[in-house]
Structures are given as structure tokens and as C-alpha cells.
Amino acid sequence: MSSMILAFQAQPQGAGASLVGTLGMWALIIVIFYFLVFAPVRKQKKMLQKMIDELKKGDKVITNGGLHGEVAGVEATSVLLKIADNVKVRVSKSAIAGLQGDGDPGSTR
Predict the structure, then answer these.
(1) Of 44, 92, 95, which is closest to residue 65 (Cα–Cα)?
(2) Residue 23 φ then ψ, to 5°
(3) 21-72, pLDDT tens digit by residue?
(4) 0.85 exceeded by the pTM?
């Protein structure tokens, strides 16, 4: 019986160490999650933004809506896309998903 009392008395000291270990494990999980999920998404977003900033006349692009077209003109916030003979549409730069023919939308050339 006295061993049970000693076990209960020793528990609070172990609980503090257990709490530190648990918090450390959660911190490690968060760091791993960041490098596996958030960092690649951020890198891909930067690459897409760079590609959009470097658009020029003649580039073939795909929009988020699925339009395939050739850049006929570039403005500050929009792009003029030629989608057929004598058919041009103005599309927001943020609607550009990537260059046509790329396996990975958002990758540069």
C-alpha cells in the first residue's frame, strides 16, 4: 500500500516532464508540417507570380477558367488574350494559371 502512495506522490514531478515532452513533440510536428505543406505552397505561389510578372506578347497561357489563349497585350492589372481569330478578351492577371504546355501550372517556361 505504501508503494501506491509513493507512486501517487511521484506523479506530479513526472507530469511536468511529460508536459514538456508533449509540447516539444507538438512543436516538432508543427515544424515538419510547415516544411512539408506551407513552404512548397509559398514557393509555388512565388513562381506563379514571377511568371505572371514576366508575361509578354506571344506567350500561350491557360486561365483558371480553362481558357487557352495567346497574350496579345499586357497591361498593369490585366492581359489581352487572343482566343480565336478576331476574338480577344481582357483577363485579370490573377486569373492566369500558367503557361500552356507546362505539366505544372505556375511553373515558368
Answers:
(1) 95
(2) -65, -40
(3) 889 999 999 999 999 999 999 999 999 999 999 999 999 999 999 999 999 9
(4) no
What are the phi and psi torsion angles at 104 (to 5°)?
-115, 105
Side chain identity, residue 1 = M
Q: What distance in Å separates the CA atoms of residue 28 and residue 93, rounded to the nearest whole number?
A: 38
Distance CA 93, CA 41 (A): 19
Higher pLDDT, 6 or 19: 19
Contacts of 104 (CB under 8 A, 6+ apart): 98
- Terminus-to-terminus CA distance in the chain, angstroms? 75
Residue with cell 491557360: 62
Domains in the chain with CATH codes? 2-99 (2.30.30)
Cell of 69: 489563349
Question: In angstroms, rounded to a whole number, what is the distance separating the alpha carbons of residues 106 and 16?
Answer: 48
